[in-house]
Write a structure and sequence with these properties.
137 residues; 4 helices; 60% helix; two-stranded antiparallel ribbon; alpha+beta; binds zinc ion; single chain
Length: 137
Amino acid sequence: MKENGGWFRRFWQKIKLGLQRFMAGRYGTDKLNTLILGIGLALCLVSMFMPWALVKLILVSLSYVFMGIAIFRSLSRNTYKRYQENRRYLALQTRMKDKTHKYYRCPKCRQSVRVPKGKGKIAITCPKCKERFVKKT
Ligand SMILES: [Zn+2]
């Protein structure tokens, strides 16, 4: 029995080491991946209750696409790009939760500018390139 346990531990360590080696330099998972995977699983779940074959097929295919993207992202070696994607997603999340501000993009340099809501028409000065533009908030 003791012999067996040792064998299993060695085997498990080998798997862990192999996995670590495999994931070295790869991106792994993040908040955005959790969302993508969640959507994929939700679609898969919904498809199970679909009585129409065509809709079911579409939902299942979509769920595979989402899960495929999640797997691709976690195995990706382009960590910088994946990090940027996650950063954009987190920024979008903050924006959607923020009820007291409006977000605009500077028409000149595309910098995102945050302004308080409910002030009527105001002139906004871009903090980056100092371009001025008028928006309703
Ligand atoms: Zn600007």
